[in-house]
Amino acid sequence: MERERIERLAMDSALGELSEDAAALLEAYLATNAPAREWARRMRCACEAAHRVVSTKTRTPAERIPSSPATPRLPWRMICPTLGRWAAVILCALVMGAAAGRWSKPRDVSPAGAPVTVVQGAPAARGWDRLVGETGQGFWRARALALVRSESSRAQPSTAGENLWDKYRRYVREQSDG
Amino acid sequence: MWTRAQAELRQLWEQTRDKVRAYMFCACSDWNDADDLAQECYLRALRNWDLFDGRGSRQAWLFVIARNTHIDWLRRQTTRRKIRATEGEVGVRTTPTTYERDEIEMLWEALNALHRDHREVIHLRFAAGLSYAEMAEALNVPVGTVRSRLHRGLKMLRRGVLQNGD
């Protein structure tokens, strides 16, 4: 056999990639052929040397050996993408919600300093009356007023047939006139 | 909150982390870089977990990712070196004046002097412990090519040591 073939077979044998039968045949051949035996020995030495240098160099330094190898953990960067993604989604939702709330808030319907007209309603509407007195001016005040009127009208059906939007428009008109 | 991919990757990580770290260390000769690269490799594996088609072994697939991670790292290093060179900085590595040339160091030097193709198969075989078939899969070459490269690499390693030893 030629030299390269012998060396390859010796390498396969040294690396455990040769079947038992083939390894036995190779050994039998090497026993009878001195030059081939020398080529095979060199190749095995090269394998051993490569193994030795790589295993020595890649031996983990003492300070890098994990303290609890029985309970290894995934690096934090593997967990973080999922957590980070969820945090980003929640943050986006919060920001968008805040922006939408801010955008949807209407301007004050009553001019500043305008007299507040509290509509006396039925006893059931007293809670709303109190709320109107506490909330000051602005959208919520207008809304509270509208609700008070609605409940008052339910208690005193003098404005039957007039819906909430009509009441609101009437209120705005009154405010602008007065 | 562990998904199926994360649980499977954890299992693979427990089996292969030392091999991947050793392979990365052989590739970049620095434990800090090796740890970073190994972590990057597992991250990529997690992101592309569902892309594994089931052919071959997961370990070989992981080493395909490890190899690509290392190649990307090499490209980044090359870019950084170019930037440093344009900024007028002096070279990256210096050879120590008193260098202990024992056998291991000589072998290591000879190994790093090999062509990348030959060095790579030696790293995959002796650091990662892959079989011929797994190496062929990781490198996307036939098994015969793996054998040729390994054979040539080992011969050149031996020759390099003999030359250095003179």
Describe the structure in your own words.
- The complex is a heterodimer of chains A (178) and B (166).
- Chain A has 178 residues and is mainly alpha-helical.
- Chain A has seven helices and no strands.
- Chain A has helices spanning 3-14, 20-32, 34-57, 76-104, 126-135, 139-155, 164-177.
- By secondary structure, chain B is mainly alpha-helical.
- Chain B is 75% helix and 0% strand.
- Chains A and B meet through helix 1, helix 3 and helix 4 of A and helix 1, helix 2, helix 4, helix 5 and helix 7 of B.
**How are helices and strands ordered from N to C of chain B?**
HHHHHHH
Please indicate the percent range of residues of chain A in DSSP E strands (runs of 2 or more).
Answer: under 5%
Please summarize the sheet with the most strands of chain A: none
Distance between the termini of chain B: 60 Å
Descriptive key words:
B: 166 residues; mainly alpha; 7 helices; 75% helix
Précis, in short:
The complex is a heterodimer of chains A (178) and B (166). Chain A has seven helices and no strands.
Outline the fold blueprint.
The complex is a heterodimer of chains A (178) and B (166).
Chain A (H helix, E strand, L loop, with lengths): L2 H12 L5 H13 L1 H24 L18 H29 L21 H10 L3 H17 L8 H14 L1
Helix pairs in contact in A: 1-3, 2-3, 5-6, 6-7
Chain B lengths: L3 H25 L2 H17 L10 H29 L16 H10 L3 H12 L4 H8 L3 H23 L1
